[in-house]
Amino acid sequence: MELFAEISVLFVIATAIAILMRLLHQPLIIGHIVTGLIVGPFFFNLIRSTETLALMSEIGVAILLFTVGLHLSPSVLKQFGRVSFVTGIGQVVVTSFAGYLVCVWLGFALVPAFYIAVALAFSSTIIITKLISDKGELDVLYAKIAIGFLLVQDLIVILLLLGIPLFATEHASWMSAGQFLLTAVVLIAFVALTARIFVSKAFLFLAQSHELLFLFSIAWGVGVAALFGEFGLSLESGALIAGVALASLPARREIIARLSPLRDFFIVVFFIFLGSQLHLENIVAVIPIALALSALVLIGNPLILMALMGYLGYRKKTSFQTGLVTAQISEFSLILIALGVSLGHLASQVLSLVTLVGIITIFGSTYFILYSDKLYRFLAPLLGIFERADARESHSQRSGYEILLFGSNRIGYDFIETLVRLDKRFLVIDHNPEAVARLESAGIATEYGDASDLAFLESLDFSKTELVISTIPDAETNALIHKAVKEVNPETVVLVVAHRVKDALAHYDEGVDYVILPHFLGSKHAAEIVVRFKGDRAKYKTLREEHIDHLQLRLKIGHEHPYPESLRGM
């Protein structure tokens, strides 16, 4: 009961601070960190169950990075691998060099200057992905590049965290470092092969139950993270690899939508715990130095990234948005400094300094990322120096569809036959895994997902969609689809199917552009045949043969007319 009461109090305070942040139009992530500061040892010292909160934080981080990995299919990694490595390594090297010079200029000794400079070079994967996810831009070009170079940075910092204590002891050897790299490669290969050979084959069975798919997703993400941890690698890298391994599954959006509420709950705990762990001793004495170093991170890091991406040929807006995500230091930066203190390389005052830099940069970068579009419009005239004359960009082909079709059974099948003949990019969304597999084998772009799940609908990109067609005969689901589409793009035309007249009229009241009533259309089509063919038996014979062939094809692929009871009340 003590633990239950403690966590209850934490969430009551977190809710109160979040409401205040909302009223002040501030990002909620800042409110969670402030909550941690308030309940932590620096103020009221309300936290007693540190180990429990640390465990919940790790679960939150694992689920967050697992869902981020689901956005990174192998094709995306291949497409943006070069820019990710160049920017990831380039920014770490340049920032570390610049930070080292600044630290030496500020009077630090060589070893503390090295530690601080390297700590300033890393950006927070967790904070960045959470903010980009909140904006709904994980599938945007700059987000894919950012996540790619964050992976590279995480790999570098993991090597540092393992290598510094390794080479700080008398037992240090290159063999130990090689063994670590070999372990990482073997684990990644094992997870990839398991996902490809076993999980992909079991998908049809798992996808038949929402609850089973949800449970399996948690077990896979957290289980792979734990496996990596057991072999000395980070939980974060394991969770991310777990997501990437499943990113090619048709159910990835469904998994993301199902895990989102659970992820958000645990991530709130993470940020509260992070705020409670911030060291604020000797803050006044280091404020001037912290402000100077924070300026390097808030301004210098984005400029470095923009220069690198401009050199690689990206346009100034993409370079600008990608650069802004680097304007804070990572939680790994604090861990690195704490490691230096534990090894006797650094004084505890350095940890207080870097902690203050972390608070300042996290606050500042949160606004940078959330308001990047407004900042770009203001600064665009000055950003031309970061864009080459021959700038060009490669975009993912899994977004920007002109037509979205919900449902591929019966009515949807007719629409697919028509859409194939159009010169338009279209995407079919279906909740039947067998239908998804069949369409993908035919070369038709598909997504597995439940259209009645608002979180799933919000994960779709309607920004460039001209037409949305729903062949799902459920009034509530069609209302959700219409609302989700129009909130993103009011100009999109929305067509839905209804089997009852009163549902059709209700949809028109909601603002749906056109409602398809199959049975009325069927009788109208039959009447038109009578007018065209009249008593010409030869024409009816030809039409009859074509109809039989078409019905046999439908029966073969599992299409059947809805049972008459479902039409009662029309």
Automatic annotation (TrEMBL):
It is a multi-pass membrane protein. It comes from the Bacteria. It is found in: Membrane. Gene3D superfamilies: 1.20.1530.20, NAD(P)-binding Rossmann-like Domain (3.40.50.720). Keywords: Membrane, Transmembrane, Transmembrane helix, Transport. One of its GO terms (cellular component) is membrane. Residues 403-518 form the RCK N-terminal domain. GO terms for biological process: potassium ion transport; proton transmembrane transport. The chain crosses the membrane at residues 6-24, 29-47, 53-73, 85-108, 145-168, 180-199, 211-228, 262-280, 286-312, 324-344, 350-370. Residues 13-368 form the Cation/H+ exchanger transmembrane domain. The keyword Isomerase does not apply. One of its GO terms (molecular function) is antiporter activity. Belongs to the monovalent cation:proton antiporter 2 (CPA2) transporter (TC 2.A.37) family. This is Uncharacterized protein. It comes from Candidatus Kaiserbacteria bacterium RIFCSPLOWO2_01_FULL_53_17.
